[in-house]
Each structure stands twice: as structure tokens, then as C-alpha cells.
Amino acid sequence: MATPSKISPTTLAKLAKLGIHHRADLLLHLPLRYEDETQITPIADAQPGMTVQVQGVITHSEVMFRPRRSLVCRLMEGHEELTLRFLNFYPSQQKQLAVGKQIRAIGEVRMGYFGLEMVHPKCRAADDDTPLQQSLTPIYPTTAGLAQPVLRKLINNALETIPLTDTLPAPLLKRLKLADFGDSLRLLHNPAADVSATALEEHNHAAWRRIKFDELLAQQLSMRVHHRERSKRIAPALPPHQKLTAALLKNLPFKLTGAQQKVWQEIAHDLTQAHPMQRLLLGDVGSGKTIVAALTALQAIENGYQVAFMAPTEILAEQHYLKLSEWLVPLGITPVWLSGSLKKKDKAAAAERIASGDTLLAIGTHALFQASIEFNKLGLVIVDEQHKFGVQQRLSLRNKGDEPHQLMMSATPIPRTLAMSYYADLDVSVIDELPPGRTPIVTKLVSDARRDEVFERVRVACLAGRQAYWVCPLIEESDALEVDLQNAIETHHQLTEALPELNVGLAHGRLPPAEKAAVMAAFKAGELHLLVATTVIEVGVDVPNASLMVIDHAERMGLAQLHQLRGRVGRGAAESMCVLLFMQPLSELARERLKVIYENTDGFVIAQQDLQLRGPGELLGARQSGVAMLRFADLTEDEDLLEQARLTADELLRDAPAVARAHLQRWMANKHDFLQV
Ligand code: ADP
Ligand code: MG
């Protein structure tokens, strides 16, 4: 067996950039694509668009200065000729390509000014006696200063020196019709000349299926291990006493839907256990998550434990504060409010009530989880719109107090396969039914050229006693922010002028919190007919009398955002309408998105389409949330493998824990956990 090669510190640093920290990581650094140097194509057979290797003698070599400095050579084979063109080149290349040299060139052939040509082909000295490669040449993802041949050598050395024993037993592989691990790796790194390069590049070769399965299996195992570890940790048991909860239900003007009933039972059961609950409550916008959160809070409070209820924005947190106060104050429970914008004195007073245990319910923004806030007896944490928070914040919540139960809520409708894969460390409850009495929302697509007609529609609706939103886009991460704010202010101005008989308010993220709250309160109270707002109203705002929404520049918004926004209307009995105003011309993607939102109202269907348009990473905001992405498997294409991996993970943990451990060791040894928690 070969000996491991020594690697210089500079190379090590470059490898680290590629995520290669241990020699074993080299094995799983898989090619992006391949070049075929196993055969020579006669120039006469080369067609534009083909990537081929040709061989011949240089008959002409010249540095040209027009249209730009470049090295242009002619390669001759028999009577056929081909131009080689280099825009950047070194003196050494000029030497290599001097007249009379025999070379092989590999690259894509295209039709140029002087006939067939290759731009920046890979060339090397070779004549008829130079042997051809025996396997396809892998091209790896790499970084500046780390050449393919160096990487190739290191990887081949790793393949020869590291034992590639299979982590999975042969009978299992046979049953799942999966290839051997070592064979798969060797094939992917050095495929024989007759292996289909397309199957390799499209990741559907049997060798790829094996690697993708392994990756998914490791992910599933890792999450299940987390799940198990959680069941070993201790949290207060908070059994239902049905006192406060029953009283709340009795006072409500509505009955819980079947779906609300079901998820509440699941949560109530979790709280009864002496292990921390970590449950994700998924429900489309308007499905009624807040009342479930209130009931959950009451069950903890009935047991004498404190509850922290957190929302990502001040507006949303405040809305929860008002709603829960309305529901709970009659039961003798007065929540405390805490946000970053409170005056120092008020913040200190709130902190004191939380620390002393004087209050059992604290509602607010992430200010609740600053180091200076000490809970007296925290038993439950509720986080609304959890996808807006990073995993880091999820962590800091958990470390506060002993070990509170956690309920996370999200209106991001996640397709089932994704939820299973990404949240396998959480238990998931789904509210899959909307409260009765909602009238469906009519969606209209209107070109901005017909803006005046939309003004008129707003006027008519508002004069008939209804309320309306006019939403302006806000793209936070770019310099466009200022421009967007300016647009909102101008739109407000424009609408105020065009509709003098209406009271028009303006809310955007830069308003001082008190002012923003005052505007929202006025809208809620019906004092404003029309609210011009940036997307601050995206999450959670609940004004049942608002039944018309206009979304300005809808072409700039994402599907999830459009769906969330539209969910702000259609909450009362009045017929609701959402007008999507768009600017021409539309990009292909924008057109697709508008079509999806126009044709669908079900959040899960929209999410599924979104997944297809954008891919899973973005849908989950994976980067912020810290969920590691899969490197090889693709959840939109590998659903069948995911399902197999899920079942196999359960089976291994039950029947063959040593196998599970070995598999995790191979795939996870050098990583943080997949979930980094
Ligand atoms: P979301 O899931 O988007 O947070 P909310 O909790 O804000 O939804 O509920 C939306 C609206 O539906 C609120 O006005 C709420 O009071 C009302 N609601 C919730 N549950 C029911 C129900 N079972 N029957 C009737 N209305 C309900
Ligand atoms: Mg909500």
C-alpha cells in the first residue's frame, strides 16, 4: 500500500478553504465534471459545441494585438487545421506552443472567424507514442492557487492509503440495491472511459446514488441522535389542570377548529413529560396559531412556571401582547411587555418583575433573551416566526433557565419532505385547516399602467366602510433601502392627494416605535381607511376589517412574501381582494412567481412551487438558520433516497447501533453536527 503524502502548510490552508481538514475529507471531495482524455478525436470529426481532445503539430504561433492582446496558434493534423486562442498567457505557454511542437489540446470547439477554434484549451506536449489516459479526468471544485493536478494527486493518494471499508452491511446494500462504497468512490474519482459522463455529471449514476444515500443517512442519523439525547434531558413536567385553559376556551367568541384541537393535544402531551419539548407548530397564515400559543402558555402558568413569548419584530410582539392581554387579563394574568425600545426605567421594572417571578408571562422581542434578563422559574419558551431567528438564538433561549420547553411557530409552509429532513430533530405539528367563515381572497394582476383604476377601487372600497393596505416593497439588504423608504413616503403622498376623502396612514420600519404603534393602533381602531406600509406588516398583523390589499411592485417580491402579505386580508367575513401591481417588462422568474401566486392560495402548494423555482436552500433561509446544506443530495430530486435513508436510520438505530455509529463517524467526524446545535 502507498504511504500518505506529505502536504505543505500553504496547501493545507488552501484545502481548508475547500472544507478539507482531514485526509479522509479528500475522499469525499468529488468531481464537478470530467474531461475525456482517453481518446483523440480527428479534427475532421470535431463539431462546434463538442468538448474533445485533438492532437497535431503547431504550424503557426503569433501574438496578436487586435481586437485585444492574445496568443493565436494553428494546430495541424493531416490536412485539417484548428485555431487555438489564448487571451491570457505566460511566456512558458508561448514556448510550449512554438512552431513545430507536437501537442494534444482539449477544449470546447466553436466556430470562429478563421474556422474551427478552441479558446483556452488545455495543452500538453504529446506525440503518437504518448499514452492516452485510462480513465476520464476529474475536474474538482478548487480554489485559487490549488491546481487540478495537485488536488488530483492528493485525492488519489488518499484513495490508495485510506481503507474504504463499507460502513453498511452487504445484505442491507443488496436489499436497497446500493453499490459498494469503495467502488463508488473509486469510480467517481477515476471513471473508466466507457462510463457515461452525463450520468456522472447529472448525479444519477449508481455510484452517485450510493454517495447521496450515505449523506442523507448520516443527516437522518445525526438528527435522530439529537432527538434521543433530548429525551434524556430534564425539564419540568407541566401536566394540564384544565383550569385556566378551560376558562379561556369558555370566554372565546369562537370554537377551536379540529386542527387546532389536535395540535393543542400534541403540545399538552409533550408538556406533561419531564423532558424538554421542542415542537415546531406549522400553520399557514391565518390558521390561528396564536390561540394555540395562548393555551400552551396557560398550561405552563397553571403549573406555576413562567413563560417567555417572543416575536421577531416589535409590531408583531406588541400585537401578541395586546391579544394575550385581552384574553388573559380577565383570568387574572397580566403579561409584562419587554422590547429594546423601552425606556431604561421601564425595562428595569419589567426585568424586576420577571426576575422576582411576579409575572408569569413575558412577551416581547429578542430583548427578552438578553443576558441581563433573568427568569425566576422559566418553564416554557414560545417563539413566533421561528425561521426569522438563527440557530444561535435558538441556543441562547435554551440555555436560559434550567431547561424550558420550547414551542416554535412558523407560517412558512414547508413541504413535508423538507420538514422531515430539516427538522428531524424537532417534533412537528401542523394546523392544516383554516378557521371557518373566511371568504376566499380574489387575486388580481394589474399592470402599473392602470394605477389610476386601482386608486378608484381603493376609494370605493373604503367609502363602503372597508379598510385597505397599500404595500410597498422593502429590500433590506441592499442600498435600495433608502430608495424604497422614499418610495413608500412618496406613494403615501400620492395617495393622500388622489384620495382626499380618505384618512391615509403611513407605517415603515424607520418610524420611531411609538409612532409606528400609534399608526397601527389607529388602523386597527378603524380611524384610518388606508394604510400605506412597507413590508413591516408582512408577519402576523391582524385587522379583520381590512379586506383590500394592493401590493406595489409585486414583481420584486418573493413567493413566500407575497403569500404572507396576502394572508393579511381575508380574515373577516367580507369578500377580500388582493391586487398585485406590477411593472413591465417582467423577468421570466417574476412572471413565473406571479403566475403561481395568482393561481394558488394554499401555502403548501405555493411553497412546493417556490422550492422548484429556487431550490431548497433559499426556501429555508438555510444560511442564516445554520442548517448545513447537503453537498451531494438534492431534496427536490432525491425524495426516494431520502425516504429510504429515513427508514434505514430508524432501522439501524434500533437493530445495529454500531453500524450507525460507524456511519456517522465517517460522515460527521470532522464536521460540526449537521445542525450545529
Ligand atoms: P396565524 O396562524 O397567522 O398567527 P392568528 O392566530 O393571528 O393566525 O389567527 C388569525 C385570526 O383568526 C385571528 O383573528 C383569530 O382570532 C382568528 N381565529 C383563530 N382561531 C379561530 C377559530 N377557531 N375560529 C374562528 N376564528 C379564529
Ligand atoms: Mg401569527
Descriptive report:
The protein is globular and about 95 Å long. The protein is of the alpha/beta class. The strands form 4 sheets. It has a 7-stranded parallel β-sheet with strand order 11-12-10-13-14-9-15, with helices on both faces. α8 crosses α25. The chain is built from 25 helices and 21 strands. It is 40% helix and 18% strand. The longest helix is centred in the N-terminal third of the chain and has 25 residues. The site of adenosine-5'-diphosphate has 19 residues, from α11.
SSE topology:
Elements lengths: L8 H9 L5 H5 L5 E3 L15 E14 L5 E8 L2 E7 L4 H6 L5 E11 L2 E5 L2 E4 L11 E3 L8 H14 L8 H7 L4 H9 L7 H5 L4 H25 L13 H8 L6 H15 L5 E6 L5 H14 L3 E5 L3 H15 L7 E3 L5 H13 L4 E4 L13 E6 L7 H9 L5 E6 L5 H7 L4 E5 L9 E7 L3 H13 L3 E6 L7 H19 L5 E4 L5 H12 L5 E5 L11 E6 L7 H8 L9 E7 L5 H12 L3 H12 L1 H4 L2 H4 L13 H17 L1 H12 L9
Parallel strand pairs: 4-6, 9-14, 9-15, 10-12, 10-13, 11-12, 13-14, 16-21, 17-19, 17-20, 18-19, 20-21
Antiparallel strand pairs: 1-8, 2-3, 2-5, 3-4, 5-6, 5-7
Adenosine-5'-diphosphate binds next to helix 11.
